[in-house]
Amino acid sequence: MDKKEEREKNLFERAEEFLQIFKKGAEFTQELLKTNEQLRYRILQLEEENKSVKSAAGMPSEQYRELAQQIEALKKEKEEIANRAREIESENKDFAQRYVEVAEENNNLANLYIASYQLHSTLDFKEVLQIILEIIINLIGAEEFGIFLLDEKTHELKIMASEGIDESHVPTVTLDTGVIGKVAKGGEPYFTEGALDTAKSDWLNPIVAIPIKIKEHVIGVIVVYKLLQQKKSFTPLDHELFTLLAGHAATSIFSSKLYSESERKLSTIQGFIDLLTK
Fold first, then answer.
1. 76 vs 67: CA distance, rounded Å
2. Do 131 and 220 form a contact (C-beta atoms < 8 A)?
């Protein structure tokens, strides 16, 4: 079992554990509420008995004092049970929230696994880029974004695929120019710390820039200019998904480019052979 499968297994086990704790907490809360209701009914009975004793004796008696002590003890017990019930309710909400987060993470990791399988199932360069775009839309929730690839000869970054933007307006980026160039040169991801609304004309400074690299060699950058309307911010899970996506995208892009180049060379050689044989 590799680290990824082990991690998914651990996440699933954590989710199951949270669910069991949540169920037990809910059952315990119901029992506490039932006990509380019984105590309240008993207090009413004792209060009625207290009234009868007072009216009969006209003054505090030994029985009256005993009943008063019992009532006071029951009131304290009721308050303790109510406090414990509130604590359990708070814990249940926390467990429920954690369960939802774990379930969401499991779902996203499963989707990423399927998407990565699709990425590595083809050596067609254009198809690989299209799959990456679909992953960014579905898993990250981006509306306007693109994929820049580095030209090894000119050392410039050119946009090769995009969604929601006009590629003709996007300039070629040199290393050290804007956020994109700095990320390509330094190899470190960038997430904006301010507002997530970036001017569309500011193509060099997106809200997110993730390097696509093989080991320490950067071959491109994934950039995001705008998120979908329902997505207001990035979560720690988004950061993790970006990192995993960049790793899978790098190997797929690199492999498909090598395959395309080898196919072109093979076609050229075959053409020469055909000319020579004729």
1. 14
2. no
* Alpha-carbon dihedral angle through residues 196, 193, 109, 184, given to the nearest 10 degrees: 100
CATH number of the domain to which 220 belongs: 3.30.450.40
Count the neighbouring beta carbons within 10 Å of the beta carbon of residue 113.
15
Return the ∠ at Cα 85 (arms to 82 and 91), rounded to 5°: 145
Domain CATH number, residue 48: 1.10.287
> Residue 156: in which H helix or E strand, if any?
strand 156-163
Phi/psi of residue 6, each to 5°?
Answer: -65, -40
**Which residue bears the tokens 């604590």?**
87
Which amino acid is present at 189? Answer: P
Share of residues in the chain with pLDDT > 70 (%): 69
The pLDDT assigned to 263 comes to 65
pTM above 0.70, yes or no: no
Residues 127 and 106 in one domain: no
- Across residues 112-129, what is the average pLDDT? 78
Residues 92, 25 share a domain: yes
